Structure formats: C-alpha cells, structure tokens
Amino acid sequence: MLRELGYVAFLTLFVIPLQAQVPPALPSSEKSEKNAKLPPCRACRVLVNSFEDGMRKTERNKHDGGDAAWEEERLGSYKTSEVRLVEIQESLCNDVTRGSSQCHNLAEDNEHLIEEWWVKHQTEEPDLFQYLCIDQLAVCCPNLHFGPNCEPCSDCHGNGQCKGNGTRKGNGKCLCDAGYAGEACTECALQYYEAFRDESKILCSPCHVACLNGTGCRGAGPRNCNSCAKGWATLSGGEKQGCIDVNECLEVRNACQRNQFCVNTEGSHTCINCDRSCNGCSGDGPDLCNTCADGYELRDGLCTDTAGEKREHYVTMTRYLTYLGLCIATCVIFQSSTWIASLVGLAVALYISVSEYWLSGSTTKGTSPTIPDHLMEELRGK
Ligand SMILES: *[C@@H]1O[C@H](CO)[C@@H](O)[C@H](O)[C@H]1NC(C)=O
Ligand SMILES: *[C@@H]1O[C@H](CO)[C@@H](O)[C@H](O)[C@H]1NC(C)=O
User: Fold this and answer.
1) What is the pLDDT of residues 181-224, one digit of tens each?
2) Could you tell me which residues are beta bridge partners of residue 305?
3) Which of 86, 169, 180, 343 is the most buried (most CB within 10 A)?
4) CB 235 within 8 A of CB 241
5) Other CB atoms closer than 10 Å to residue 334's CB: what's the count?
6) Cα–Cα dist 211/190, whole Å
C-alpha cells in the first residue's frame, strides 16, 4: 500500500509536470514566417529584391586583366545570357525568410515574364520592379501613387503617409503623423500647438504636461495652457498666468502612508518606503529617521540594529553550552569505558578546536557549526 502511494506521489510530483513542460516538436514560428502571406505588391517587391540580389552575386569583375575589347564582348553577352539567368533563378527566394513560400510560387508562376524581361527588355527597361510589379502584374504603383489606376496621392505636406502609397490599394488620403490633423496634415492635432509655419511647411509640438488633456494650449510651456491638468494649480492675472506644479508633499495632508517619505514630482508625487531601521522618516537612509524602528537604537545619529547584536550573543552562548554538553557526555561515557571515552574526548576536542578556528576565520559571525556526521554517530552509538 505504502509503495503504491509512494509511486503515485512520485508520478504526480516529477513525471507529470515534466511531461506537461515538453514543448511542441516543431519550431512553429519559423514555419509560419515561411508561410506568411504578404500583400501582393509587397510580395512582388520581395521577389524583385531577391532577383536583384542574385544579379549582384553573378556580377563578374570587368577588369581582371586580359584583352579589354574581348572581355567587353564576352561580359556583354554574359550579362544577358541564359547561363546567368539560370544561375540567378537557382537561388531565387532562398534568402527570403518571411513569405518565402509565396516568393517561390510567384517566381514559378511568372517565370516566363521574368525570362522575357531578361532577354528582350532588360536594356531599355532596366528596372525589373517597374516591368514586373507595376506594368505586367499590376500589383504595385509608382511611388506616391495609389489605387487600381495608380492615381496620384494627396499631398500630406511631409506630415503623414498616403494610404495605398505605391500599391494598387488604398484611397490616397493622408494618414497624419502624431500631432498633425486635417485632410492634408496641415493642422495641429489636439494637445499640440503650431510651433512653425510657412507656405510649404508646418511644425506642431506637444503641449506641456501641465495642460489638461483635451483642452490644448496656445504655445510652449505651462504658461500657455488653456486649462491646467490634475496636480497643477491655475495662476491667473498679469505676467504670472498659467499652471504651476502643486507640491503635494507640502500641501496635501498625509500624502503618503506611515513609514514612507514623500518626493514631489511634476504634476504628482511619489511615496518611498523608509529605511527598515526607521519608524517614520524624512528621507532615505538610516540617518533620516524620525524615530527608530523596534529592535533599533539611535547611536551616533544612526538607527542601529541592536536586536542583531543580541542574536549574536545568544548564538555564542548556545555554542558554549553545546561544548559543555559534549564534555559532560564524555564524562558519562568515561564511567563505563575508559578507552571509548578517550576516543570520544579526542573527537570532541578536535571538533571544538576546528569549529572555533573556522568561526574566527569566517567573516559572517553568528552561524553555528554543524556537528560532523561521524562524530554524531559515535556519540549516539556508544
Ligand atoms: C511613399 O512610399 C515611399 C516608399 O515606397 C516612402 O519613401 C514615402 O515616404 C511614402 N510617402 C508617403 C507620402 O506616404
Ligand atoms: C488624452 O486623451 C485622449 C482621448 O481623449 C487619449 O487618447 C490620450 O491618450 C490622452 N493623452 C494623455 C497624455 O493622457
């Protein structure tokens, strides 16, 4: 019965948790990267980039000696040769991590188009992206164009992105950057103010943290807030208009709990626990206590751990009592057998010298030595 129980306990404690932690066998993130499906224009861009990498890798050094004219002719023909195309296509998409399956499929489906460009159009249209992705497959648009017919994007004045930029998707409207608003991103968003403007450019900067969210500001700094945020007081009238930080540590009663001290911050405050030697404090460290905590006494302006000292005394005391006990045990044994007692006595003397030596050598005081097993056995057995 006990054995069965022990077996069950062993199973529940060790084997089952181990099995639960066994990770799934396949590195699924790698697989999902490979099978990731990119938007059509992006996928075409990936294929073209990989192809162009291949072209770079198959480039030959033009000036490695020899007859220049002959070299020129030979390289000229190599440049657009079938041999080089095959070489490029062999490693096409192999360097792609994200969406590599899609890249391989796309390359396979459009092998004829790539070959046609290679043989017929490469010289007059050197941009494979333009040829394949924009003209032939019609999945991309030129930069700053969008939609099925590649219409020009809205002008976002450098403060936003055109939706559908460079693809056959989107609506060409502006997606303004943080801080900007309006159809053409020529206005400042809420909680931003206009820091600069000329005919072509506008620059918006965030309002100061002192300004209440949602109410905005007229300019930089806490003086230009329309309303003050929580933790900031409103100053009104004349030069001294605006928001000023409230020092919660001074102005709020019991801003912190007991045994913490208060640090004012812009718009708020933080409470930090006092040193463990303190019972209430005005700052960090054992020298800034209001009064000392239990077990600590004020010495030279610092709250000092007296309980720890008492603990050490107590440990020393018990150590000597242990020695005394060992000696008495030896005396008791002495009455029945002299030679065992002398043996034990020798061991006890050895133990005491070793542990005293060890204690005087160790820096951490107050830990008592453990009695060696063989000594314990000897004492118990006889
Ligand atoms: C459009 O896309 C190109 C990269 O394809 C980028 O450099 C440019 O900043 C984008 N412009 C806008 C307005 O979205
Ligand atoms: C201000 O309020 C808006 C919503 O009204 C919120 O999205 C935004 O995060 C807030 N900003 C700050 C700094 O709290």
Assistant:
1) 999 999 999 999 999 999 889 999 999 999 999 999 999 999 99
2) 296
3) 180
4) yes
5) 15
6) 11
Nearest CA owner, ligand 1 atom 7: 143
Cα(252)–Cα(163) distance, rounded to whole angstroms?
50
Distance (Å) of CA 111 to CA 121, 173, 342, 351: 15, 35, 98, 87
With residue 9 as reference, give the H or E element that holds it. helix 2-10
- The residue whose CB lies within 8 Å of the most ligand 1 atoms, and thus the one to mutate among 48, 127, 144, is 144
28-56 pLDDT per residue, tens: 788 888 999 999 999 999 999 999 999 99
Among 20-29, 182-191, 278-287, 364-373, which is the least confidently predicted range? 364-373
CA distance 260 to 204: 41
Prediction pTM value: 0.61
Residue 272: pLDDT above 90? Answer: yes
Residue 76 near residue 19 (C-beta atoms within 8 A): no
User: How many whole angstroms from 168 Cα to the centroid of ligand 2?
Assistant: 34
- Say if residues 207 and 267 touch (Cβ distance below 8 Å): no
Residue minimizing CA distance to atom 5 of ligand 2: 214
Q: pLDDT of 213-261, one tens digit each?
A: 999 999 999 999 999 999 999 987 766 678 999 999 999 888 999 999 9
| Ligand 1: lining residues by beta carbon, under 6 Å | 143-144, 153, 156, 161-162, 165-166
Examine the pLDDT at 345 and tell me if it is beyond 50: yes
| Mean pLDDT confidence for 297-317 | 85
**Which ligand 2 atom lies nearest to the CA of residue 213?**
1
pLDDT of residue 310: 81
Token readout for 135 is 């003209």
Residue of 213, 215, 227 to test ligand 2 pocket, by largest number of atoms within 8 Å of CB: 213
Q: Which residue has the CA at smallest separation from atom 13 of ligand 2? A: 213
Pick left, alpha or beta for residue 285 (phi over 0 → left; psi -120 to 50 → alpha; otherwise beta). left
Nearest CA to ligand 2 atom 10: 213
Radius of gyration of the chain (CA): 41
